[in-house]
Amino acid sequence: MEPFTSFTGTAVPLDVDNVDTDAIIPKQFLKRTERTGYGQFLFYDWRFKVGKERQDFILNEDRYQGASVLLARKNFGCGSSREHAPWALSDYGFRVIIAPSFADIFYNNCFKNGILPIVLSEDDVDLLFQRTNEKKGYQLSVDLESQRVIDSHGFEAYFEVTPYRKRLLQKGLDEIGSTLEFKDKITSFEEKHRIYYTIERNEKASI
Amino acid sequence: MGKTLYDKVYDRHVVYQGEDQPSILYIDLHLIHEVTSPQAFEGLRMNNRVVSRPDRTLATMDHSIPTTDRLLPFRDEVAKKQVKTLEENCREFGIQLFDLQSEKQGIVHVIAPELGLTQPGQTIVCGDSHTSTHGAFGALAFGIGTSEVEHVLATQTLKQDKAKTLAINITGELPKGTSAKDLILSIIGKYGHDYATGHVIEYRGEVIQNLTMEERMTVCNMSIEMGGRAGLIQPDEVTFNYLKDKQYVPKGEQWEEALSEWRLLYTDDDAVFDQTVEFDASEVVPQVTWGTNPGQGAGITDVVPSPENLPITQRKAAEKALQYMGLQSGTPFDSIKLDKVFIGSCTNSRIEDLRKAAKIVSGYRVADSLHALVVPGSQTVKRQAEKEGLDQVFIKAGFDWRESGCSMCLGMNEDVVLEGERCASTSNRNFEGRQGKGARTHLVSPEMAAAAAIKGHFVDVRNWVTKEREEVGS
């Protein structure tokens, strides 16, 4: 995972409330067993009609080609827990998503995949939508260390992110590795923690 | 200050409480399926890691599998590879798998409770947002992404900050002819699709206590459709009676010990929730959704709303939804004609759901204009239904009677709603394209779906006359 420090990119406004993960990556692409290559399927049913790009979808407009900051509306990423959603957004080229609110599971999944989801107020998001619509090639810059979003026209907003999630993005932390450092604590917890059943081992197990 | 049920379950699973990172939370039960696990196993292999507790992990296949004859070969090569990958991963890492040949196969959220694996006070996770279902037993259960699936496989823990708490006190009495599905759809309709974001919901009150376990599962299942991290219900005698003698539930002396532990799982009188709301169940009528999120619903006696009559913040989304759904404002719900009816999904595919639907259907014929199917939640549910003759009721009426799986809830297999078709569905999501590209989904209860299948359009099930002339409603 590419460490995230500061970032500047073209913004694209997706003016839809409650964008769900079914819309971000439709179910027909969830049968793949890989973790990569989902960008081509991002927003598939909105982006394509019988395999051809739909000109009425914002991501297909010339002025937004190469966009890497997604402006979104409230409750972005609701619905299914599929991590294919952030995989598709990241593979397409998005590194930052700005919205007034995010669904919990999606928000959490973003940090595992080098995407920074930023919550700003409705008013700030409205202003950014307006500027993106008005100014061709409008860019936003994000500095994770100081937790700020700025543009070159005087916009500046502070955003919240927990210190742990910030570190996760900045350092590309191996979360499993860091938890396994607590292996002794987990083992001693298990010794006194009661669970009333044992699930049988797979009888075809190879190890 | 007292503790909430959520506090009690959370606190007894904290392995390590760090200053500079979220707590490490122990996970009692990890459920796996074919869609969200392959990349997690691949991650383990790449890092030379093993599954920490195969004895706390159970796999099944449900999402992308066909529901037609199991002896026939898979027609979808990509889905076939995904299922095969799960088989190989479970063999390699020693994880128990209830595969397509197993008599215990089924939707992951149907089989864990019926096997007695879902128990009060546990932490349960799965790479599926409807894991909230298991909260019906007073277990803290929530959906996770694939990176976290890998984390749980490797460590049997998760790093998680504590959520906020929301109490929904449900007062009054659920009217005759309405169901748990109508209750939860009404609640989501009142408060909105994202109202509970960041919160764990506890459903409380006499109305909840009077629900059966299967009805409680329907309610908790849809917590995520309000944005809730999880849904919880205090375990009680109804819970214990359901669990007794199930396969993985302790027996004899251990059962008594478990009971005395489980009886402590309640919210203390002096506990404080971050938020509390009251909901009067007496006003609930059978629900039909008209939009493209589960909060966009109304009573069967209503008409399709006009966006201009909705709060200003909801208008634009409502206009977009009505356009997608091909609905005119002012249309009475009972005049909306249907092309498909789906009875199934982790929300409504258990034996009681099938019994209720069969009671409506018995002696009638499915309308010629539509295709209706019943997909039992598990092989166990299917066998029980066949034992009771419910399969024959459905088949005689003209329903397809299928093998267990997620099926048309998300249309990952061949069970899809075609572009522009309209479906009455007992599932949980009416998102654009959810049941198929361009598919139009109306969420309803099993009773409402069954009646709609017979009439070819929605009807108020409270007025339904069963063939035995027994009123379903009052």
Automatic annotation (TrEMBL), chain A:
Task of the protein: Catalyzes the isomerization between 2-isopropylmalate and 3-isopropylmalate, via the formation of 2-isopropylmaleate.
InterPro entries: 3-IsopropMal_deHydase_ssu (IPR004431), Aconitase/3IPM_dehydase_swvl (IPR015928), AconitaseA/IPMdHydase_ssu_swvl (IPR000573), IPMI_Swivel (IPR033940), LeuD (IPR050075)
UniProt cross-references to PANTHER family, sorted A to Z: 3-ISOPROPYLMALATE DEHYDRATASE SMALL SUBUNIT (PTHR43345:SF5), 3-ISOPROPYLMALATE DEHYDRATASE SMALL SUBUNIT 2-RELATED-RELATED (PTHR43345)
Major enzyme class: lyase
Positions of the Aconitase A/isopropylmalate dehydratase small subunit swivel domain: 1-122
Protein name: 3-isopropylmalate dehydratase small subunit
A GO CC annotation given for this chain: 3-isopropylmalate dehydratase complex
Gene Ontology MF terms in the entry: 3-isopropylmalate dehydratase activity; isomerase activity
Pathway: Amino-acid biosynthesis; L-leucine biosynthesis; L-leucine from 3-methyl-2-oxobutanoate: step 2/4
Enzyme Commission number(s): 4.2.1.33
Family membership: Belongs to the LeuD family. LeuD type 1 subfamily.
Catalytic activity: (2R,3S)-3-isopropylmalate = (2S)-2-isopropylmalate
UniProt record, GO biological process: L-leucine biosynthetic process
Gene3D superfamilies membership: Aconitase, domain 4
Keyword terms, alphabetized: Amino-acid biosynthesis, Branched-chain amino acid biosynthesis, Isomerase, Leucine biosynthesis, Lyase
CDD domains documented for this protein: IPMI_Swivel
Record organism: Fictibacillus phosphorivorans
Known partners and oligomeric status: Heterodimer of LeuC and LeuD.
Automatic annotation (TrEMBL), chain B:
Function noted in UniProt: Catalyzes the isomerization between 2-isopropylmalate and 3-isopropylmalate, via the formation of 2-isopropylmaleate.
Pathway of action: Amino-acid biosynthesis; L-leucine biosynthesis; L-leucine from 3-methyl-2-oxobutanoate: step 2/4
Swiss-Prot/TrEMBL catalytic activity: (2R,3S)-3-isopropylmalate = (2S)-2-isopropylmalate; citrate = D-threo-isocitrate
Any one Gene Ontology molecular-function term assigned to this protein's record: metal ion binding
Originating species: Fictibacillus phosphorivorans
Subunit structure, interactors included: Heterodimer of LeuC and LeuD.
InterPro entries on file: 3-IsopropMal_deHydase_lsu (IPR004430), Acnase/IPM_dHydase_lsu_aba_1/3 (IPR015931), Acoase/IPM_deHydtase_lsu_aba (IPR001030), Aconitase_4Fe-4S_BS (IPR018136), Aconitase_4Fe-4S_dom (IPR036008), IPM_dehydratase_rel_enz (IPR050067), IPMI_cat (IPR033941)
First-level EC class: lyase
Family: Belongs to the aconitase/IPM isomerase family. LeuC type 1 subfamily.
Keywords associated with the record: 4Fe-4S, Amino-acid biosynthesis, Branched-chain amino acid biosynthesis, Iron, Iron-sulfur, Isomerase, Leucine biosynthesis, Lyase, Metal-binding
Ligase as UniProt keyword: no
Cofactor binding description: Binds 1 [4Fe-4S] cluster per subunit.
GO biological process, one term: L-leucine biosynthetic process
Residues annotated for [4Fe-4S] cluster binding in this entry: C346, C406, C409
Cross-referenced Pfam families: Aconitase
Protein name as annotated: 3-isopropylmalate dehydratase large subunit
Cofactor or coenzyme needed: [4Fe-4S] cluster
Keyword Lyase attached: yes
